[in-house]
Task: inverse folding
């Protein structure tokens, strides 16, 4: 089979959070492996820029502005994807955000907002696209968790609760939907520099953190998320479902 096992030729992928950061890198990785991509986020200009880049790779791209916390928006994404491309083979739920701060002072609104985008958004994507995949008889779902779904992180209780929830959502769906040939896995990145954490890792304490806690003594390059995402979307991972794949420079290995 050789490298063909990593091919996504002829596949249609939906990537939420595809306008920038890790979601955009994953969307580009899917396109480089042969897939056409539906890009989802709220900021139209970023979606358009990502779509132009993918079209430059010779693949088709369709930007759809949507809020993943709203069921009607997510249903609209699926309808658009099916109308434009006829099917969805791969779903990557990457949209996410964080509001850090001391847990004792966290507002209920902040808790709800973090849970809504990360966990509810992931659930709505899985359920809505899952129904389509059940009907079609198969598919791949990749849900963006974090090492924060595996280890505790101070000042991040809502985020880590949501990311741990994503791992268990993925495991339960993997068990329930195996009969439909739908593989559901979670990705657990460590630290990659994106808008979510750029300021912190540029600071002195951020640099000290890297040296002290990440065995590879660096953060991830955004491109380095692509391999794991392509692997989970491709035939190379046919026998993998319900897993949480860690990409963290060794941070959680000790
Ligand atoms: N960077 C890291 O080190 C790291 C580590 C572990 C896990 N992660 C996870 O990886 C994912 C991407 O993070 P990132 O660092 O690439 O962050 P980012 O650069 O801020 O990108 C987040 C993406 O999610 C979209 N998004 C946010 N809220 C949304 C909503 N309600 N509806 C639709 N789209 C929404 C954003 O677009 P709009 O704002 O335009 O909607 C954007 O495209 C997140 O789930 C994050 O938790 C990141």
Result:
């Amino acid at each position: 089979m050789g490298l063909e096992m990593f091919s996504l030729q002829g596949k249609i992928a939906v990537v939420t959070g595809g306008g920038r950061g890790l979601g955009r890198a994953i969307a580009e990785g899917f396109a480089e492996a042969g897939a056409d991509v539906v890009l989802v986020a709220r900021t139209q200009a970023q979606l358009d820029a990502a779509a132009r880049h993918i079209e430059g790779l010779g693949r088709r791209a369709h930007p759809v502005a949507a809020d993943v916390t709203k069921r009607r928006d997510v249903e609209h994404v699926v309808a658009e994807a099916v109308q434009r491309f006829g099917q969805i083979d791969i779903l990557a739920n990457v949209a996410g955000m964080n509001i850090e701060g001391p847990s004792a002072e966290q507002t209920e609104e902040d808790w709800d907002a973090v849970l809504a985008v990360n966990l509810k958004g992931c659930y709505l994507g899985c359920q809505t696209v899952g129904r389509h995949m059940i009907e079609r008889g198969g598919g791949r779902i990749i849900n963006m968790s974090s090492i924060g779904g595996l280890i505790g992180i101070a000042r991040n209780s809502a985020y880590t609760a949501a990311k741990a929830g994503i791992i268990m959502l993925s495991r339960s769906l993997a068990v329930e939907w195996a009969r439909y040939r739908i593989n559901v896995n979670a990705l657990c990145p460590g630290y990659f520099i994106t808008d979510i954490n750029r300021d912190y890792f540029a600071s002195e304490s951020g640099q000290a953190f890297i040296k002290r806690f990440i065995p590879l003594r660096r953060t991830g390059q955004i491109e380095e998320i692509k391999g794991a995402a392509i692997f989970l979307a491709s035939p190379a991972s046919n026998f993998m479902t319900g897993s949480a794949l860690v990409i963290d420079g060794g941070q959680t290995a000790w």
Notes: Residues 16-17, 19-23, 41-43, 46, 67-69, 94-97, 117, 144, 146, 189, 191-192, 194-197 surround NAP (CB under 6 Å). Residues 192 and 220 are 4 Å apart (CA to CA).
